[in-house]
Amino acid sequence: MPETTPNAMLEVRGLQAWYGESHVLHGIDFHVQQGEVVTLLGRNGAGKSTTLKTIMGMLKRREGSIKFRGQELAAATSRHIARAGIAFCPEDRGIYSSLTVEENLMLPPVVAEGGMSVAEIHQLFPNLAERRRSQGTRLSGGEQQMLAIGRILRTGARLLLLDEPTEGLAPVIVQQIGAIIRKLKERGYTVVLVEQNFHFAATVADRHYVMDHGAIVDMIPNSEIDAHAEKLNSYLGV
Amino acid sequence: MSIFNIPIQLFSTQIMLGLINGAFYAILSLGLAIIFGLLNIVNFAHGAFYMLGAFGALLLLDHLGINYWAALVIVPLLIGLLGCVIERSVLRWIYDLDHLYGMILTFGMSLVMVGIFRNMYGATGLAYSMPPSLQGGFNLGFMYLPASRAFVIVASGLVCLLTWLAIEKTRVGSWLRAATEKPQLTEAFGINVPLLITLTYGFGVALAAFAGVLAAPIFSVNPMMGSDLIIVVFAVVVIGGMGSISGAILSGFMLGLVEGVTKVFWPQASSTVIFVIMAIVLLVRPAGLFGKQD
């Protein structure tokens, strides 16, 4: 076993997971320090989203260790993991069509003190205030992404797992989301970000883990990203 | 006074009888719709819980002297609790399996419950005496409205309305809608979805029991009362749209009325008209009148 990392907010060791019969994660190791923004980069199907879902307890069969603030969560249910203080923003944004914008925002229960107030979230995302009575899925793609991020900021969770928050959005919205992630970092949030777009990732992250075939194959600090540009291109196949 | 040569008194009496049937359809299909939405189980035992509700009222009155009004509260609570126990101990094991297993399992449960009551009380109906405050009625000029029937329509309408409000307008209701739409994500937000499922099944079953208590004084109480009704109620749910809350309520009352009106103009067709409508709806709008079309 690799030695543990002291004071890691999240420490994942030897994480394996299966979708039914198919083995999709083959022993993931990575850690995230408190206040860090870390990305998981990789091609489609490399296992990035699956890693986030497995941390959230959403895959039935999993093995290995997931330590959050020293607490072992590998065998916990999704509900307990959320209650421990990890919040998840899924790739499809997970906006409920049977709930209004306001109900979507208020849905996740508060799990710890120190979450943002609704007023603060509305200040961050003014469109959500204007459209609070609309059906959740009537929002534009960008607004839905704002809602998906906004609603987990209310809960007081300090570790945010964001699955491709920029996917399919216009460049101006992508910039806005980048600004929000930097603002969250300033406020001390810890973020694990799944990204396909490493140009975007480089503008927000401290470190990048590169995934391929259900395993972590490299780690690149953001400060060295230019030096490793060629290597990254070959990993990501761009 | 007459409409199409039919005396208005006959017409309005049939409308009233239709509304009463509609009240039962609405409250039963509402319970089925809530359960189907969250559990993905077509609850074939629903008619048996309705029957248990009527017997519950009868037994409470005969053995403990507990009257109709108290039974309207106590019986749904007890049967709802029984529903929670059944969900925890039996239904929980089959959620990962095909819908068919849920139908067969609940159908089997229904046969057991009906069988037990047939064995104990026979197949002929027992009478539940009308509570004194529901005897008599109102003369509306064009028809006579018995108080007991008026009460059924009002009570059922009120319970349906309150249930709709609770689901559509409250915070707990928003959890229920969320868990119905995306159960796994809802759980990943920290909401206790298994508990919601248990309570929802219990509540749906309690609605059936409430309808059973309402039915006790106006229909005969017998073990088969639910089995006869539930087939029509399934047709109502299909017409309204599987899982649609408001659809279940509205189509329940509407189809009761349609049945009543059919009884006036073509009595022979009145017991089939709902199934004819179901067939047409399935052809034209397969997801039901109020269901979401994919």
Secondary structure layout plus pairing:
The complex is a heterodimer of chains A (238) and B (294).
Chain A: E1 8-19, E2 22-33, E3 37-42, H1 48-55, E4 61-68, E5 71-72, H2 78-84, E6 86-89, H3 101-106, H4 118-124, H5 126-130, H6 141-153, E7 159-163, H7 171-186, E8 190-195, H8 198-204, E9 207-212, E10 215-221, H9 229-236
Parallel strand pairs in A: 3-8, 3-9, 6-7, 7-8
Antiparallel strand pairs in A: 1-2, 1-4, 4-5, 9-10
Chain B: E1 2-3, E2 6-7, H1 8-39, H2 46-64, H3 68-89, H4 99-121, E3 137-139, E4 144-146, H5 147-169, H6 171-181, H7 183-188, H8 193-215, H9 225-240, H10 245-265, H11 273-284
Helix pairs in contact in B: 1-5, 1-8, 1-9, 1-10, 2-3, 2-4, 2-8, 2-9, 3-8, 5-6, 9-10, 9-11
Strand content of chain B: under 5%
Proportion in helices of chain B = over 70%
Provide the gyration radius of chain B in Å. Answer: 19 Å
Across the major sheet of chain A, the strand order is 6-7-8-3-9-10
Q: State the secondary-structure class of chain A.
A: alpha/beta
Low-pLDDT runs of chain B? none
Largest sheet of chain A: 6 strands, mixed
SSE pattern of chain B: EEHHHHEEHHHHHHH
Radius of gyration of chain A, whole Å: 17 Å
What can be said about this structure in brief?
The complex is a heterodimer of chains A (238) and B (294). Chain A is α/β, with parallel strands linked by helices and 238 residues long.
Entry keywords:
heterodimer, A: 4-stranded antiparallel β-sheet, 9 helices, globular, B: 294 residues, mainly alpha, two-stranded antiparallel ribbon, two-stranded antiparallel sheet, 4 strands, 3% strand
